[in-house]
Amino acid sequence: MERRELEKNRFWVSSPKTEHHEGHEGRWVPIFPELRPYVEKAFEDAADGAVHVIARYRNPDKNFRTRFLKIIKRAGLTPWPKPFHNLRASRETELAATYPFHVVCAWIGNSATIAQKHYLQVTEDYFDRAGGGAKSGALEGAK
Known about the structure:
By secondary structure, this protein is mainly α. The protein has helices at 3-7, 16-22, 36-45, 64-74, 83-96, 101-108, 112-119, 124-130, 138-141; strands at residues 10-14, 26-30. The protein is globular, with a radius of gyration of 20 Å.
């Protein structure tokens, strides 16, 4: 990662999986405010001239799912099915509530069809917003 990309609040995500299907080798993704301190730290800790600021986890033989499930269990929590899929779905749903859908799909790296079929969720927040967050009392008076 180059300093100018950090200054533009974006980073490049390589994606060999989509390269073969969509003709892309990756995508630009914004550095969201909640990630910025971690990205800056990784940038500062990277060796001079490093191509990747996060080099420790580039081995494709690493099984991150197993490690992640152990961390969740050690925290005393119950792991949910497909944790990485669920994390991606949650973030795509959050972003879709704020940004244009074509932009979200470009950042996440999927098509609108795939996003709608497999990732976007109906959350409690949508019900709360639709209901105005207040009880009307209409059912109480209907006795």
